Amino acid sequence: MPAGRLSGKVAIVTGAAGGIGQVLVQALVAEGAKVAALDVREPAKGSGGLFVPTDIADYSSCEKAVAQTLSAFGGLHILVNNAAIGLGAIRSNHQKVPITIDEISPAMWQRFLSVNASGAWHMTRACIGHLRAQRWGRIINVTTSFATMLRGGFHPYGPAKALVEAMSAGHAEEFKASGVTVNVVLPGGPVDTPMVPPESGFDRAALIPPHVMATPVVWLSSDAANGITGNRYIAAHWDATLVPQEAERRCRTPAGWPGIGTPMIAP
Ligand SMILES: NC(=O)c1ccc[n+]([C@@H]2O[C@H](COP(=O)([O-])OP(=O)(O)OC[C@H]3O[C@@H](n4cnc5c(N)ncnc54)[C@H](O)[C@@H]3O)[C@@H](O)[C@H]2O)c1
User: Fold this and answer.
1) Atom from ligand 1 closest to the CA of residue 161
2) Of 11, 40, 144, 235, whose CB neighbour count within 10 A is largest?
3) How far apart are alpha carbons 267 and 265 in whole angstroms?
4) Is residue 73 part of a domain?
């Protein structure tokens, strides 16, 4: 994609101080976007964007961040819901020894749901009025592999991400006629970021590099992706050697899990 494809656009990236967030901020800035970098902690110096301290678990903090973005940049077009807490917050060797229900306090369960699930809804709720009014918007939700959502020993992280996956499919449908698209991007496996603690015991060189997330996120943010909505992209499967339209077509699946199960009994 030639540089400058996002010039004139303003983006919000949550979790901007994290491994994937920093890459996304840099990639969006490199394409000419102005970027508000939201996080509870300050991103490393030089990672780009305007740092806006925000706790996405707190709706009023999200509203404030959106207002600050609009006043700093005079617009808003793209929301990347990327922030999350990982299971290292409960126990750093959780990849080797799965977390049990007894280890999860009710407060910890709530915190994961508040950040990893409600956080994306809070940000969407705080941005949607502006995006709909201008009849152009991008919402890109970062989820995880279905295996992680369903896996034993991966609570509360997995079920919270399943909520975001389902919410993405529902919002894509709800916002369909409004010019606002909603898509899911996920890495496709463990990534070499602080969310995967050293105690995981993985060979770091075998982990997915965070930069794979940038290509689909930037393309979905661009005008080339007008009307592309309700999809799910495994970033590690996006073939960057192809022209973006072809890479997108091959990588695309529907967000969530439509088409499974028997039809609902309608009254
Ligand atoms: N790393 C992986 O293996 C992996 C795999 C699949 C999906 N993901 C997803 O990718 C996204 C980015 O993860 P990462 O690997 O860069 O993790 P990371 O831990 O490096 O970054 C997460 C960032 O989110 C921020 N954050 C946490 N709570 C917040 C809050 N309440 N408000 C605002 N910001 C908050 C953290 O401060 C941190 O900077 C997450 O949604 C994660 O679930 C990661």
Assistant:
1) 43
2) 11
3) 6
4) yes
Identify whether 233 is a catalytic site residue.
no
* Cα 4 to averaged position of ligand 1 atoms, centre (Å): 27
Q: Is residue 262 part of a domain?
A: no
Structural domain includes residue 2 = no
Catalytic residue among 73, 157, 233, 238: 157
Question: Ligand 1 centroid vs 16 CA: distance in angstroms?
Answer: 8
Q: pLDDT digits over 85-125, tens only?
A: 999 999 999 999 999 999 999 999 999 999 999 999 999 99
Domain that holds residue 153: 10-254
Mutate to test the pocket of ligand 1, among 26, 39, 139 (most ligand atoms within 8 A of CB): 39
Q: Per the confidence metrics, is the pTM higher than 0.90?
A: yes
pLDDT in tens, 210-244: 999 999 999 999 999 999 999 999 999 999 999 99
**CA–centroid distance, residue 200 to ligand 1 (Å):** 16
Largest CA distance in the chain: 58
DSSP collapsed to 3 states, 103-171: HCCHHHHHHHHHHHHHHHHHHHHHHHHHHHHHCCEEEEEECCCHHHHHCCCCCCHHHHHHHHHHHHHHH
Provide the residue count of the chain.
267
Condensed to tens digits (0 to 9), the pLDDT of residues 140-193 reads 999 999 999 999 999 999 999 999 999 999 999 999 999 999 999 999 999 999
Angle, helix 214-221 to helix 244-251, in steps of 10 degrees: 110
